[in-house]
Model the fold of this input.
Amino acid sequence: MSNELSVNHLLGIKYLNRDDLELIFKTADQFKEVINRPIRKVPSLRDITIANLFFENSTRTKLSFELAEKRLSADVINFSAAGSSVTKGETLVDTVNNILSMKVDMVVMRHAKPGAAIFLSQNVNSIIVNAGDGAHEHPTQALLDAYSIREKYQDIEGKKVVIVGDILHSRVALSNIFCLRKLGAEVMVCGPTTLIPKYIHSLGIKVSHNLMEALEWCDIANMLRVQHERQELQYFPSVREYVQQYGVTMRLLNRLSKPITIMHPGPINRGVEISSEVADSDQSIILNQVENGVAIRMAVLYLLASKKEMNFAQT
Done:
């Protein structure tokens, strides 16, 4: 296994190979140990400046990246689109180039438009980390999800993972499918017909519209919320009807022939896709996912910055 990533940016899981994934996990193992020490900081990125550009609202991802950066001793700049020159008509490239002129080394960006991170990587001279671009990809979420499965089961190969909910509007679903398939897992998606994209069969995964059938099949269920903010149409009759057909409760889990693991990328709509009882149960690893997010993002930032340092040393 190589000691460096095959890519210069983290734009999507699509662009990573299996060795990249294993290297990120191995590096995250080391950082997980760091963040559980009494002193949770290392000087790995002491001379690196990172700008967090969030053009969409975020709580967990933004905080997780910021904490990861500070644990690595990087200098951090936080940018919010609200009240910035973007609202005055400034282009994305001009905005980022102005920030980079302040000697910024890396940009972590969340944007509402699919492909925004790819576009930026082609037009500015900086390392770009995609923190979510529209309904396209959310690579660090998929990495922390896979890492959490690996932590619980030791291996991902051969595991059966079902992703339940709003697949059509979810960047988490697509990144998870790419990541889990590269690691040898079997993947199924489950949800209303209207929330399953037509291209899904081309990704080599199973599709079910029956929640009980999907849960009986899987080892792990990753529950997604319905993303009302990305929906211009009504994709199902009512929330109540969605809950009846696709909401996971302890009563439902107790009917299964085996215990399964419950995951959720957040934010949770308690009482919709999962009940509070399920979210807080021993079968849930949701809080483990949050903790692992910091270690995974530390690993990604460290590996990309290390590659830049090596390239700089060679020039």
Q: What stands out?
A: Residues 79 and 127 are 16 Å apart (CA to CA).
